[in-house]
Structure to design on (317 residues):
């Protein structure tokens, strides 16, 4: 029998129209939207309108994108459960860790929506203070040594930190604008390394997020988190977290420590996972996981079409 892992995407996966077929799909998805609206009742946000029609500059704001992605991921997760597809282990990339916690019944959905909205606000505050001065780039190459040499060289111009270990061929670097621009320049000169600016405006998962981390630590004290009912691997340690107190610590430390996605997927494989399903908008994690485990069964469920395709493939196994 196959062992299934559900993977939940993070910020950057948002797009206008996401969840279009899910709103009104079932009583369960409608319940989630009602719960989300209750969580956001004091916020100036119409989550359904934002997902379906944007505008893009509003949807991509960190404080809006985070609850929107979580909500769409939760609706897709609910539909999968109703179709009889259940995970034996879960994990999420960055923001996606909150979706994984909802899936593992470690946090109530309404609390999770409220929490990621606040998390986004804390980060957005940092963005607005440091507008156009902090960001992230992805570095893609088969030659790790050359990548690290570039980072070391560009670090002479300012602060840089590795914030994501995404696959054997991709890392993400956060930092100040001047050294990031130097990285981009170096990448343009070298055919063996691609340096791609990301569509984010904050240096996620670096020490530059310390203030937002401290605000999240204060806020999360009032959120109830329980021991997970499904095994969950966290970003901070790339290992299982079984206790509520350790989950809170992992969510806090995640803000200033790198996402260890490569290690997470490798651990799942070592523990017998042979089928990976990305649950949420986009297919970023499907692509990254294929880079790590090219021969494994890896699918994504981002809408009803991809849902049906995934179900058909699972039935053939």
């Amino acid at each position: 029998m196959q062992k299934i892992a559900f993977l939940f995407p993070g910020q950057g996966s948002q797009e206008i129209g996401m969840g279009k077929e899910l709103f009104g799909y079932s009583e369960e998805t409608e319940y989630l939207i009602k719960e989300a609206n209750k969580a956001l009742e004091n916020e100036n946000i119409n989550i359904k309108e934002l997902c379906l029609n944007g505008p893009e500059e509003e949807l991509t704001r960190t404080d809006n994108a985070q609850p929107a992605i979580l909500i769409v991921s939760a609706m897709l997760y609910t539909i999968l459960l109703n179709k009889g597809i259940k995970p034996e282990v879960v994990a999420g990339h960055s923001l996606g860790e909150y979706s994984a916690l909802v899936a593992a019944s470690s946090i109530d959905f309404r609390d999770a929506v409220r929490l990621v909205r606040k998390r986004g606000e804390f980060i957005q505050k940092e963005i607005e203070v440091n507008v156009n001065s902090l960001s992230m780039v992805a570095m893609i190459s088969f030659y790790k040594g050359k990548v690290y040499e570039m980072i070391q060289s560009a670090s002479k111009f300012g602060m840089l930190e590795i914030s994501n270990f995404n696959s054997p061929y991709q890392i993400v670097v956060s930092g100040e604008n001047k050294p990031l621009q130097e990285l981009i320049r170096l990448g343009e000169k070298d055919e063996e390394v691609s340096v791609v600016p990301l569509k984010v405006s904050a240096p996620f998962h670096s020490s530059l997020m310390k203030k937002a981390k401290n605000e999240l630590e204060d806020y999360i004290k009032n959120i109830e988190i329980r021991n997970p009912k499904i095994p969950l691997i966290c970003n901070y340690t790339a290992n299982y977290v079984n206790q509520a107190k350790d989950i809170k610590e992992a969510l806090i430390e995640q803000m200033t420590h790198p996402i260890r996605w490569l290690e997470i997927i490798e651990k799942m494989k070592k523990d017998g996972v042979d089928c990976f399903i990305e649950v949420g908008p986009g297919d970023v994690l499907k692509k990254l996981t294929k880079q790590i485990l090219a021969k494994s069964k890896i699918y994504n469920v981002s809408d009803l079409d991809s849902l049906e395709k995934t179900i058909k493939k699972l039935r053939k196994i």
